[in-house]
Amino acid sequence: MIFDFGGVLTSSPFEAFARFETERGLPIDIIRRTNAANHLENAWAKFERAEVDIDAFDHLFAEESRALGAEVRGRDVLPLLQGNLRPEVVEALKRIAAQFKTGCITNNLPANAIGSLTGRTLYVAEVMALFDHVIESAKIGLRKPDPRIYRLMVETLKVDPNNCVYLDDLGVNLKPAREMGMTTIKVTSGAQAIAELEAATGLKLG
Prior knowledge:
There is one protein chain. The protein is of the alpha/beta class and 206 residues long. The chain has helices at residues 14-24, 30-36, 43-48, 54-67, 74-77, 87-97, 121-128, 137-140, 147-157, 171-179, 190-201, and strands spanning 2-3, 103-106, 133-136, 165-168, 183-186. Strands 3-2-1-4-5 form a 5-stranded parallel β-sheet, sandwiched between helices. Helix 6 packs parallel to helix 11 (190-201). This is HAD family hydrolase. InterPro entries: ACAD10-like, HAD-like_sf, HAD-SF_hydro_IA, HAD-SF_ppase_IA/epoxid_hydro_N, HAD_sf, PGP-like_dom2.
């Protein structure tokens, strides 16, 4: 069982992006479109691989969003990433972890990037402790959807990808896992994720 973190164990940041855009009178989906454009080498990708610092990210994101029609500062986007933990999915993870090996692959930011997130780090640490292994993009310089990050997890857990289930809220991140032979679940809500996990594991999780 391999989980993404944001948008799976937490609510999606997309809701916060939409609120921010509406409040500022920005074009709808400007943040998501900026993230999606050149998604392997854009400001976001470089930041998640810890190749640029927060000042460079702020500047690059502003440039990239401006090219799509409206300037958004990278620093303004970071606080929007703080989704709320989905307790029902955390509970399901606890039950799964009692029976199966578990891993988490998260595209995250360098540890010092978001001061506003420090308040929840203790709770997040408790959730992360449920996993046998956690891979963080900013620590290893690789990020999803690079196939190497999935291979690294499979090798570390010593599991056959054909026996793995992988959950993510982004289709682009599910594709490499599926190509390796994993069963994939595209997460749109906590309830939907739990229902599909129950089907995949045969466990009662709700």
